[in-house]
């Protein structure tokens, strides 16, 4: 009975992750509390995740990546790419993916994409290439490069830490580099020869910088008392005369009015939900008798347009605004910014624009003052989609940052100290040398990922304590026990990469690691090949935009559809399934 309840809990967790019914870190911590309350783990075991090497090392690597970003190095790489003469799309793709992959092998790949996204948008504009041709390759290169070392991605660190602490199996920082290089080169070759031809040429958020852009945002306007618009049918108002303006709905007394919006006669205080392009938004604000709902309801003084600029910004993965409404985010107070409109990938927002909860990947159209823009550049809550300089880049600190990273990598490779201790030492060194401030240190850490790892460790322990893991291993061995070990390994990789497309890669790595070790032991095989398969499979998220954070970042910014990732990424997933399954036994014998 207990085993059945454990698996029911796992299914529920997966459903909650996929549906985004609650923040993933809240789900993970909730699981930790639940398994402790029902007695599947002891309180000591439940809280052991907070002292585990994996979340501490992951947090430290986020900080080391931030140090590199604040040094302005990534920005300078973007400038270098723009100065290369005779740059064709294929050459640009090779240079971009190669550079990102190399960098991602040594620092966490998510911050690399965060820093590189606005630079790639600028490069796309410079070479007059659709950004949708470059942003998926940017994300894929970061994922591929992360497989080249133990510190390249959080999943590698999680599996390595669990293997060491639970099973006394040591995985060195460069033990996976040989296979990782082959996988990375194969992935880049696939993108150059095949994937490049499957990429869409689609309007992206980079095009929004141009006055002719027509991507639709959604904003909410209110009819002022005494407005000349009162009594007029929507289709006969000035709204209908502006190109790229579409009145989607009319809300009166908190009720959505039925029928076509164009046929509704307006009354005072009616709310208009309007689909609008960036250029049209500028014209819309000049219509007398209409006001943005945010300005009306909060009593804000309208900012003179000549004192401001209009920019686009994306909600980041560790943004404090995620889950809050536009009003609760207090962008006007914190950044002197007025939210003109919002764009959400793949969704048609039709009402209550000011009340919807913001999500990771949402794009906001902001009117902001110069002072506010300077503050926004230094914020980790919003990512500017413009080719702007890193706020107060500390280029004079770059040699120190590179020296610290080099020392961490070399000492870890020589097994002088554990990578967890070295990474934390590197963090201390960055702060003592003033490469990072303490406030920047805390802001750099994606606490959602850290919390998720802690919670999933508790769930993994519950699976072992209750016998659920052993039960699952027995069933798997009964099914594939007589098959070729390479086929068993391939099946493990396939399960891992399939789950990673739907839920967090870290959750998949934590849950599959004990199952991998126990399956190998049941079959009298060495567990190392199965651990490596879990590592690579948990990073192989190419077919959906939701399995890996880097894919989610470029999803909205590139104007992609879900099917774009499926078309480009699914063949890559299958290609790497074959390569990894065949090569793992060569690097790590099964027996």
Coarse shape? globular
Q: Between the first and last Cα atoms, what is the distance in angstroms? A: 36 Å
Low-confidence segments, given as residue ranges, are 204-214, 297-307
What is the percentage of strand-forming residues? 5-15%
In quaternary terms, these chains amount to single chain
Share in helix: 55-70%
Q: Tell how many strands the DSSP assignment holds.
A: 9
Largest beta sheet, briefly? 5 strands, antiparallel
What is the strand arrangement across the widest sheet? 3-2-4-1-5
Rg calc: 25 Å
Can you give the mean pLDDT? 81
Instruction: Specify the structural class.
Output: alpha+beta
Outline the structure in words:
The chain has helices spanning 2-19, 24-37, 43-47, 53-70, 73-83, 89-104, 109-126, 135-146, 154-167, 177-198, 278-284, 293-298, 326-329, 331-335, 370-377, 398-413, 419-432, 438-444, 447-466, 468-480, 485-500, 505-522, 527-539, 549-557, 562-587, and strands at residues 217-223, 245-252, 255-256, 271-276, 290-292, 308-315, 337-343, 363-369, 382-384. With 591 residues, the chain is of the alpha+beta class. α4 runs antiparallel to α19 (447-466) and α21 runs antiparallel to α25.
How is the secondary structure organized here?
Layout: H1 2-19, H2 24-37, H3 43-47, H4 53-70, H5 73-83, H6 89-104, H7 109-126, H8 135-146, H9 154-167, H10 177-198, E1 217-223, E2 245-252, E3 255-256, E4 271-276, H11 278-284, E5 290-292, H12 293-298, E6 308-315, H13 326-329, H14 331-335, E7 337-343, E8 363-369, H15 370-377, E9 382-384, H16 398-413, H17 419-432, H18 438-444, H19 447-466, H20 468-480, H21 485-500, H22 505-522, H23 527-539, H24 549-557, H25 562-587
Antiparallel strand pairs: 1-4, 1-5, 2-3, 2-4, 6-8, 6-9, 7-8
Helix pairs in contact: 1-2, 1-19, 2-19, 4-7, 4-9, 4-17, 4-18, 4-19, 5-7, 6-8, 6-10, 7-8, 7-24, 8-10, 8-24, 9-22, 9-23, 10-25, 16-17, 19-22, 20-22, 21-22, 21-23, 21-25, 22-23, 23-25
